[in-house]
Amino acid sequence: MTLNKNTIINDSLLFSIIIIISILGLTILYSATNENIDVVIRQGTRLIFCFFLMILVSSIDINRIRFISPYIYAFSIFLLVVTLFWGHDSKGATRWVMIFGFSLQVSEILKIILPMTLAWFLSLSEDKDFDIQKLIASFMIIFLPIAFVIKQPDLGTSLIILLCGIISIFLAGIKRSHIAYLFGLFLVIAPLMWKFLLLPYQKKRILTLIDPSSDPLGSGYHIIQSKIAVGSGGFFGKGFLNGTQSQLEFLPERGTDFIFAVFAEEFGFLGVMILFFLYLLIIIRFINITQKAKSYFSKILAGSITCIFVLLIITNVSMAVGLLPVVGVTLPLLSLGGSSLLSIFFAFGIMFSINRRA
After folding, report:
1. SS3 37
2. Which of 78, 225, 230, 254 could in theory staple to 264 by disulfide, Cβ–Cβ 3.0 to 4.6 A?
3. Rounded distance, CA 21 to CA 133, Å?
4. pTM confidence score
5. Cα(320)–Cα(90) distance, rounded to whole angstroms?
6. Are 260 and 322 in contact (CB under 8 A)?
């Protein structure tokens, strides 16, 4: 496969912003891990690999990506089965599978693979009318991997994957009557999920969101410390490496779930606005690529990736400021983690491929 000069250069602005945020992520990770250079080097190595993956994916014609989407989905289901029986256990959860010495969390990749598969399925028919048969089949595609992810157990990621699938269905043009049915079904299922599906610690996380002070040294500790970090940053922040909540290790999961709190404490409101502006530029470019997409498959997939990117940012930031319970969602390009990084760069490669085709 040859890479022509138009593979990445066709959107140098988007490429440059990705590099800037990635470097910013390594910088704040250095502070969040108490100047642990080994962690930064490991994350930097992952970034280099992911950049090459992004370039490789961007060089593949989007029609070929459409063709291989169901096969990637089937392989992902296979990996979920492998994870369930032979996965790596950590803190009571079996969410990782070892592949050639590398640890992969398949549920992270599903956030992109599922919309790819739904876009493929919904574009099979020339008839764009979204009937009840398509809706049922789409939810079967969504719930098959979710059933395995829940068994890991990982309810938070399961809900995110569900939202990613629902986003693709909505963008495909679901009828208003179907929306009413789904909303009614949710009202029926939600109490049953609370009663029979949610584990005690998951219920406690939701209840802690309403009143973190009810368990300040237990389930409410994360949210309380994160809100202290965000609020204490003020307008200009405390300065790089000067965040007390992170440097004194009051803030848990500093490099992953709560890296936004570290960033807000050290760079303040001004730094947060700059970060949001960079994210906004990516979102604007994504919207532009979605509008220019030529095929039905490309439009659904590009629109889904755009919405999912926004969803991940909103979810992580809302966790950090106490608006959502802690569900283990990382902040794109900033948080520590290989699988989440792989997922987001895979999505970037797809967007470049769609843009090149357009």
Report:
1. helix
2. 230
3. 42
4. 0.89
5. 23
6. no
Q: Distance (Å, rounded) from C-alpha 103 to C-alpha 96? A: 6
Please say whether the beta carbons of 168 and 119 come within 8 A.
yes
Give me the amino acid identity at 327. Answer: V
Q: CB neighbours (10 Å) of residue 71?
A: 10
| Residues 19/75, Cβ–Cβ less than 8 Å | no
The C-alpha atoms of residue 275 and residue 17 are separated, in whole angstroms, by 10
Read off the pLDDT of residues 225-281 as tens digits, 9 standing for 90 and up: 888 889 888 899 998 888 888 787 788 878 888 999 999 999 999 999 999 999 999
Count, residues in the chain: 358
Q: How far apart are CA 60 and CA 75, in angstroms?
A: 19
**Token representation of residue 38:** 């080994």
Residue 353 near residue 62, CB atoms below 8 Å: yes
Residue 277: closest CA among 24, 7, 2, 1: 24
Q: Is the peptide bond before 153 cis (omega within 30 degrees of 0)?
A: yes
Helix (H) or strand (E) holding 271: helix 259-292
Name the residue among 292, 327, 320 with its Cα closest to residue 306: 292
Instruction: Read off the amino acid at residue 28.
Output: I
Instruction: Characterise 65 by phi-psi region: left (phi > 0), alpha (psi -120 to 50), beta (else).
Output: alpha
